[in-house]
Write a structure and sequence with these properties.
Structural class: mainly alpha
Radius of gyration: 48 Å
Order of helices and strands: EHHHHHHHHHEHHH
Number of domains: 1
Number of helices: 12
Distance between the termini: 30 Å
Strand order of the largest sheet: 1-2
Helix content: over 70%
Length: 391
């Protein structure tokens, strides 16, 4: 029986073992690059949204300061007794927020200049209405500059989403400007009645310019909020903003009618309309800040979820590639094919295994068996045949 020679196992070569690892690295490299790019973009968006929330916190503290400053200015111009308690409390609140987040928003210098201006105006020194109007007007300008600084350094002014961009533009730009200029317009109307006749022409021009400056931001606020409601995907924004916005619009129309249609408006009517508009602005400011902070918080949660999913996907893909590389590295090599010299060798011959059934047929024929059998005597094979059969 012909049996083929056993195959010789080939020892794996070094390139054969290194190649799977190289393939795994080639696959891991672009995967790692994509993950790094996604992680970087997500981290940048997350940092921006987190800074914007700090800006919203700062703007929330600046709101009461704006209201108090306008009220103190109107009281000083009217020469009425007033207290600076509300203004002092608002100053302390802004100072606390600036200490907490001023380093990240880089607002310390702006706030330090505004506070120095406010602290330099004692309660009883500004007895001249014109001097009070001028001094508090300068402080209000510094306050509006602080608003702009907070929006710029926090990134609110560069917000990529339409709804949050319009909300921050309204709450950090249009609303405080409209509040300050509306109060300034009411105070100028009151001062115009006390100025000499020689300055009436100058006062009239100043009033006309201030009307345009005051009503422009108020209209911009309405446009910003309506644009935010139209562009948002949130179901809560429109329901929460539209009602106080309608109230603010009605008070704005009353204020415009009291101060915008006459060369010399009635100070009492304008003051009453201004107080109503300021109350509506306070309510609207609270709603806008709450909605803006809620949208930013929702964005942060979505970014955290996307970052977690990306990390899990990258980890699973890396584990699969590593497992594939290890499997290929540890796989047994293929059998070695016989060479030409080995194929030319004759096949090895192995004797057949002995078989009891064929042993008797292969017994050597002895010389005695070839002799003629005598009568009466049986050959030796015949004598053992019964024994062999029984066995």
């Amino acid at each position: 029986m012909t049996v083929p020679a056993p195959r010789v196992r080939r020892r794996p070569s070094v390139p054969g073992r290194v190649l799977p690892l190289l393939l795994a690295l080639v696959l891991v490299a672009p995967l790692g690059l994509l993950f790094a790019l996604a992680e970087g973009n997500t981290a940048d968006d997350h940092d921006l949204a987190a800074r914007e929330r700090l800006g919203v916190r700062y703007l929330r503290a600046l709101g009461p300061l704006t209201d108090s400053l306008v009220e103190v200015q109107s009281t000083a111009v009217a020469q009425a007794p007033a207290s600076r308690a509300a203004l002092s409390a608002a100053i302390e609140e802004v100072a606390s927020v600036d200490d907490a987040v001023g380093d990240e928003l880089r607002s310390h210098d702006r706030w330090a200049g505004l506070r120095a201006k406010l602290d330099g105006m004692p309660e009883r020194e500004l007895t001249d209405p014109e001097a009070a109007y001028q001094a508090y007007g300068e402080a209000a300008d510094l306050l509006l500059a602080l608003y702009r600084k907070v929006r710029e350094s926090s990134g609110l002014i560069r917000d990529p989403q339409s709804d949050t961009f319009f909300l921050q533009d309204g709450i950090g730009g249009a609303l405080p400007t409209a509040t300050v200029l509306a109060g300034r317009l009411a105070d100028l109307v009151r001062l115009a009645a006390t100025r000499p006749a020689a300055e009436r022409t100058k006062t009239g021009i100043e009033l006309a310019e201030l009307r345009v400056a005051a009503f422009g931001p108020a209209n911009d606020l309405v446009a910003d909020l309506r644009a935010a409601v139209d562009s948002t995907e949130s179901a809560d924004l429109g329901a929460n903003v539209l009602t106080p916005l309608d109230t603010y619009q009605r008070s704005l129309e009353a204020f415009t009618a009291a101060g915008g249609g006459q060369a010399a408006p009635n100070p009492q009517q304008l003051t009453a309309a201004g107080i109503s508009a300021q109350a509506a602005a306070k309510q609207l400011r609270t709603v806008i800040l709450d909605q803006l902070d809620a949208l930013l918080t929702k964005r942060l949660d979505a970014l955290d979820r996307d970052r977690l999913l990306a990390r899990v996907a990258a980890g699973v893909a890396t584990a699969l590639l590593v497992g594939l590389a290890v499997t290929l590295f540890r796989r047994r090599p293929a059998d070695k094919r016989p060479t030409h010299a080995e194929a030319a060798r004759p096949p090895a011959v192995r004797p057949d295994p002995p078989s009891p059934a064929r042993d008797a047929d292969r017994l050597p024929v002895r010389d005695a068996d070839r002799l003629p059998v005598r009568a009466g005597t049986a050959p030796e094979a015949e004598r053992w045949r019964p024994f062999d059969a029984a066995h």
